[in-house]
Amino acid sequence: MEEQKRIILVTGAAGFIGFHLCKRLLELGYIVVGLDNLNPYYDVSLKKARLKLLIENPDFHFYKQDIQDHKALIETFNKHRISIICNLAAQAGVRHSLKDPFSYEKSNLKGFLNLLEMAKNYDIENFVYASSSSVYGGNKKRPFSEKDRVDQPLSLYGATKRANELMAYAYHHLYGIPCTGLRYFTVYGPWGRPDMALFLFTKAILNNKPINVFNYGRMKRDFTYIDDVIDGTVSAINRVFDYEIFNIGNANTVELFEFIKIIEQELGMEARKVMMPLQAGDVLETSADIEHSKEKLGYNPKTPLKEGIRRFIQWYREYYRV
């Protein structure tokens, strides 16, 4: 008798990480139920282009749906025998949370609570969700470890992600739901988000426009390539833990000027840099301790920054016909 395919719900399926995760899960033989509200936070045509590639697979079922809509979620869960939830839907962006705080409350708190209720009511085997390196906020100790205190978020976005971790713990404690939170560190790569630095810088340099260099370039980030992130996420989906939190980073911190230099080299063009002060909500440095993830998830990021940037630029040129 043929083994029945497992059905997984992926929210934020048309998003950057969501798209790559759905693609990988379909390759691995899962049936994927994808939800996305296709909100206009960034170019919806990019989200639709990602979806177009996924919909070609008969094992992918897409619903234009918002995780805030409790009734619609119930209909979806009644229609499909979902056994795993992977929640990647969220209002993203640290800077945007200063402009539109209520969108974070709706998606990141109410929407997240709705999904925990689904996990409780539909006997879900594993609940995996995206947290963020933003939860580390003003922490001075480097690299950031899952054991560190995380009660000083520097943005509302970071605060909502920490709230998700606490909400997941409460539901695990009350109802025995296995919950795994993944603290993603500056994810980049092909099909990336237009509001992120790599996309913004590449677009500006190719169009001979200046780029804004915040905190006068005195910033460091732990850039993590999308394929490595998906490896870690799939591992968390396939291994069921009672309650765990993992850093999904690259464990290799890079200075902003070094990052820009690699982009310039790959494009064969120099950036016109506009030096700017530190923006509210931004952290000076992110740095992931990934020992815990290596040990329990078998997580092992392999993509060097130069190679990852090259692949992104290749995709960008092809997609935008530059």
Structural class: alpha/beta
Poorly predicted ranges: none
Which CATH-level-2 architecture? 3-Layer(aba) Sandwich
Report the sheet with the most strands, covering strand number, pairing sense and barrel closure. 7 strands, parallel
What is Rg?
19 Å
Mean model confidence by pLDDT: 96
With helices defined by DSSP (H or I, 4 residues minimum), what is the helix count? Answer: 11
Q: What is the helix content?
A: 40-55%
Inertia-based shape: globular
The strand count comes to: 13
Per CATH, the superfamily is NAD(P)-binding Rossmann-like Domain
The topology string of helices and strands comes to EHEHEHEHHEHEEHEEEHEEHEHH
List the helices and strands and how they pair.
Layout: E1 7-11, H1 16-27, E2 31-36, H2 44-55, E3 60-64, H3 70-79, E4 84-87, H4 96-99, H5 101-121, E5 126-132, H6 156-175, E6 179-184, E7 187-188, H7 197-206, E8 211-213, E9 220-221, E10 224-225, H8 226-238, E11 243-248, E12 254-255, H9 256-267, E13 273-275, H10 291-297, H11 305-319
Parallel strand pairs: 1-2, 1-4, 2-3, 4-5, 5-6, 6-11, 7-10, 8-13
Antiparallel strand pairs: 9-12
